[in-house]
Predict the 3D structure of the following.
Amino acid sequence: MTVYAVGDIQGCYDQLKELLNKVRFNPEKDTLWCAGDLVNRGPKSLKTLRFLKSLGDAAVCVLGNHDLHLLELAAGGQSYRRDTLRKILKADDRDELIEWLRHLPLLHHDKKLGWCMVHAGLHPDWSLKKAKKRARKVEKRLQGAQWKGFCKQMHHRMFPLREPKRGGDERALFSAAVFTRTRYCTRDGKFNWDVRSGKSRNRREKPWFEHSRLAWHRNCHVVYGHWAAMGLVVDKPYVLGLDTGCVWGGSLTLAKLKPRGQWVIAAQTM
């Protein structure tokens, strides 16, 4: 079995199919890991969701911020100006797609392979065990009967900058932001949710994977997306960044994951 990982698809269905054709992806023996942001901004979000859902166990997808935004809209939230999600919300199979989406994880870990996948990042102080626990808490809310109320809280929400000491919705919202929105943070766990491109002006803030004493790195390497402005990240310890900005006119990148943190770039679109 070959495990391939792809960055943010964001509705770029044709480019995804191009990559899979290049490597002769076979869902009967291969697995495709998708690092979140399956939908939005691109032209074929509905077709992308239908295709990934049809792959069954051959597709392992985690939720990204745009995927959570689709859940917000399905829960009755407000859209953004550049959204391209209307076809999904009006589709005959909308309910089945939303049900499938809200049961996706925020973190996937393959112990044997030695890789885990998130959309955006991890807290420097979270061990892999703690990260899994935080992910499960959010997933429980997304999959529960009150999921719509929880999703609505994420629209235009001022996420906590630090992890709340107590549990509840505030901690769940913080955890959701870490998994799906992280770029810069301080070593002691203060997150900057505002910087989207360019560098942080705060010298104490670094990309989440560049701090010393990262608790999670003892157990795995991390493949992630989300940070199109940084592009392909292949030269940092413990991480592989695969958001190469396809929806912004860049490319879509497919990597073959190997045991013990090894990988090779398998294909890229032009």
